[in-house]
Write a structure and sequence with these properties.
The chain has 22 helices and 6 strands. By secondary structure, it is mainly alpha-helical. α6 runs antiparallel to α7. The protein starts with a helix and ends in a 7-residue tail after the last helix.
């Protein structure tokens, strides 16, 4: 008895008859060819129909650009100089510079501009995914453990690998992500990792320029230059704690603690901190959470040239800083012959009253990021009034989300955490390759590499991010 006969005995009669028909057909070569031919024809027809439908259905990129973008990005409307139409997959892959910029803006939610119709969040994600598929590059060959060790030691310590790292490299263990992440955590706990903060974070955050801030005593008579050093030290200790606690990089913007001494606590209006020694302090209110509440950032993004707007905050400078450092997109190109503001009056109120064209239509795409920080004066102190009267920190993000003050600004930014994760991954890739510290120095190659590092990670921490960066061969444009 054959297997088929045994099975046929256990089947109901109608199924057994079907089985018998199948057995008979299998004994007839001509019938086999005929049935196979019919089946192949059906498959080919289905494939052709699917291909035809696919060709007739525009890609999500084409649909979105045609609906939301082409009215401005047509090579004719200023300040746009990018001709984004016509579009298809070939154009995306052939124009990586253009489409990498578009991808960054879409991920950040900064396009379409204020007041323009916008796609829903799901459509945004579909378009970003479609652009990524076209711009993704093949993953380069894996680095050797020796190369990874050298890059890691240089990145974190600005030094040569130590004995434990050399030993792991000699055993070719550093290509194992778990082993490499343990090495990252060990090295961050070492005092030599302070070099990482001073050589990468401070230039990237523009805090290397903090020493240039020299507040005018006419407007800030109580200012002591030692305050500037305390502000610098606060941010340094904060960054080291985030790295050593292996937090999600997004927590740089949300952490509810900082490091204060008595001088800095009084400056911030925080009670019960005495003495010159810095210590970790839980913040009593959410306004100062993360980097946006730290005086070093607020001071370096204010004007401190003696006699030139020296007493006022600058919403443009602060807005551009947030745009580049959280959202990862450059500010709009300065419009020629823009109307100047008076140096004798607070800048913020003047910018709110600028004419729509050519000023406000562009400004409102990033100035509101600075307006929301108006409760912080040029030294980072909290205020409810400025030189013109009650502080107005009300604004709206590009997507129309209303904000009023730093807490609502932070909540609005945190709707797009992947924008910051991509931003910090790109900056680390550029730095690890010996590149520029410029806040917007990414390329299509670094963007593609950042996507590979961040993809399929359920939770990004400093150890996983840094390990991904040093495992990646320096991106090139070749």
């Amino acid at each position: 008895m054959t297997a088929g006969q045994g099975l046929r005995r256990r089947l109901p009669k109608e199924h057994a008859n079907n089985w018998q028909e199948h057995d008979n057909s299998m004994k007839n070569p001509r019938l086999i060819r005929c049935k196979f031919g019919r089946m192949t024809t059906r498959i080919l027809v289905a494939l052709l129909v699917a291909a035809s439908l696919s060709a007739q259905t525009p890609s999500p990129v084409t649909r979105v650009v045609g609906t939301y973008c082409s009215g401005c990005h047509n090579g004719r409307v200023e300040p746009s100089t990018a001709r984004l139409t016509p579009l298809d997959s070939a154009h995306i892959a052939a124009n990586p510079e253009l489409w990498s910029r578009a991808e960054r803006h879409l991920r950040a939610g900064t396009m379409p501009p204020v007041g323009a119709p916008r796609p829903d969040r799901r459509t945004y994600e579909e378009v970003i995914a479609a652009i990524e598929r076209e711009l993704d590059k093949p993953e380069p060959a894996a680095e050797t453990s020796q190369a990874i060790a050298t890059r890691l030691a240089t990145l974190l310590w600005n030094d040569a690998p130590d004995a434990p790292l050399r030993k792991a490299a000699q055993r070719d263990q550093l290509r194992d992500p778990a082993v490499l992440e343990r090495q990252v955590r060990r090295m961050l706990a070492d005092s030599r990792s302070e070099a990482f903060v001073s050589r990468f974070f401070f230039p990237w955050l523009q805090l290397d320029k903090l020493g240039n801030s020299d507040p005018d005593k006419r407007f800030f008579p109580d200012y002591d230059p030692s305050l500037r050093e305390s502000l610098r030290r606060e941010t340094e200790l904060f960054l080291l704690s985030q790295l050593r606690d292996d937090r999600d990089p997004v927590e740089l913007w949300t952490a509810n603690y900082s490091f204060l001494n008595e001088q800095l606590a009084k400056h911030y209006g925080i009670p019960n901190v005495t003495g010159s020694q810095f210590r970790r302090v839980t913040l009593p209110t959410p306004e100062r959470a993360g980097l946006l509440g730290q005086g070093s950032i607020l001071m370096v993004t204010s004007r401190h040239q003696h006699g030139v707007d020296a007493a006022y905050t600058s919403p443009a400078t602060r807005g551009k800083w947030v745009l580049m450092h959280f959202l990862g997109v450059p500010p709009p190109t300065t419009f020629p012959n823009a109307q100047p503001v008076s140096p004798d009056l607070p800048i913020t109120g003047q910018t709110r009253r600028l004419p729509a064209s050519p000023c406000a239509n562009c400004h409102r795409n990033f100035f509101p990021l600075g307006y929301a920080l108006e409760n912080f004066d040029p030294l980072g102190r909290w205020r409810t009034e400025d030189q013109a009267g009650p502080v107005d920190a009300s604004a709206a993000l590009v997507d129309g989300t209303p904000t009023n003050g730093p807490v609502e600004l932070r909540n609005g930014l945190l709707q797009r955490p992947d924008a910051f994760r991509t931003t910090i991954a790109e900056r680390l890739l550029v730095y690890a390759a010996g590149g520029s510290f410029a806040a917007n120095s990414g390329t299509p190659e670094t963007l593609a590499a950042a996507r590979r590092i961040l993809r399929d990670k359920n939770q990004t921490r400093w150890s996983t991010l840094i390990a991904g960066v040093v495992r990646t061969k320096p991106p090139t444009s070749e």
